[in-house]
Amino acid sequence: MTTCTSKELRFIFGTVAVLLFCVLSLTNIQSSYLVERNANFLLQFKPAKTRKDTVSNFTAISLKPEQRLCALCEHVDTIHRFKMTSLKFSRLETIKYDTEGTIVVAIETYDMKNNSKTVGDDVIVIWASQADGDGLVSGHVIDHKNGSYTGTVKVFWTGFTKVNVKLASSLENTCLRLKALKKYGNTVFAMKESWGIKGTFRTNLVREVTNCGANQKIFGFRDVCNFTSLNGGMSWFCGKPKHPKLLCSDIDSFGTGRIDNSMVGQSERIQNNGHGIFNQYLLLDIQNYRTEKRNYSCSLRPPLLSWKESEPSGFWLDGHWNFVNCYSSIKHDITPYRQCLKNKNVVIIGDSTLRQYAEYFIKEILGLGPVDMKDAKGPNRQYHDYKLFKSSGINLMYIKHEMPFHNPNFPVKSISSVPEILRTMEDNDLEDNSLILIINYNSHFSAYPPSKFRERIRYLAVAIERFLSRKPRTKIFFKGPHLCIDDTRWFDARISLLYKQIIQEELSKLMNNVIYLDNWSITVAHNNEQLHPDGDAFFSHINQLMAYIC
Question: Residue 317 contacts by C-beta under 8 Å, 6 or more apart in sequence?
């Protein structure tokens, strides 16, 4: 688990600079919305209140992003919950909007007692929606670290446009998760009701269930069983059974269930929803917008550029997902998708959000009807179900990644890690120019130390590099994290953004060979909070993927 030494903390927080920050604004907004017309009007600015800007000297030393977050949380007040950002009292003001469709918004946060906040580090997102159409686009938010934020959105339409701001993750709730992780070895102990993965041990006469995790610290157990070798070489541990007649070798299955957190104090638990849409929004009349010429077909674009996108990478308009910096060469419909994938071998390896992709492909593109792969297992109670789906000249297989994988009950037999699966595929006789790989790791790791997620991505990077040395023409995609919020589980938007940083760092040498799927922009634009997006949000995922393939 990533920990911060006292020496690092003294160095990081020892230097505090006091800066003056002016927020440019047109006027204070008293109502729940603001209607402004004539985007060509040159707004006259006046300086807003000045506030102390507390800046920690994070850039002075080289720390990994998970270490910086750990250090930050050491000094965050998680006891006085009224200091959390209020959706009711926090305010928006339009700074400007111009003839190119760019909207700039000042975001001022206030706490539950309507006091102006003087610290930042909440995750705040912004998006715009077309009032008389289906247009949706996410924006970019700059955190000034003093309670003030600046949001920028570029729209791709004219007419009345609604701008919303959401608190996607409060710093206090993130820090409660990390404090629980440090004390109990798992972030779920910060939940009102803890829920996680457990191991079932059994013989003919005795049965016992213990808690499991990707890290060796299993709260309540002095001794643990190391099941890393069962897990395809990736770290996995369970509490050792306390019954004298049960051994580690008596492990029968891994499954999800309630975890006792009765020992956790109320001050250690997440009680306030640290997320939601600000009560106030803006309504603007956009007269003009401008788009840059898109010279590349997305399918022919160098993979590196998919990693270098600024926010947003795309937008929803006219019933499909559009790209800012490339164009789709395919009409987004089933028949063109089917033609594009003919004679292709599609292998999808990852979690349940990629299982969604597989189920859509099987039902719609392969035309085989609905299929539920959630509880799929192999013959003789094997962990993986290597079932091949074939139709219309397309071959498709979905393989779930190794533990941790939250599901009611999975056998422990024949678990292969993603690196092991890739090594097996190196030696098959499939032509690499027919092969499409879609891979991810994400939400199942959020309950455990970020260092464990980094470890998995690092192993994956080595495996992909080796795979490409054998099958260099394979088209490989990595599905990035999306906005998912659930304070009753372990999903946290800040952790998702942290994972995005880790993925970019650990896969940096592969950016010329692997295409990054930016699902963050999609889910912010669609105001999605679900683990499994549906409707237009999900179709945007599919549109993005198919534009890169075809």
Answer: 130, 133, 134, 135, 136, 156, 157
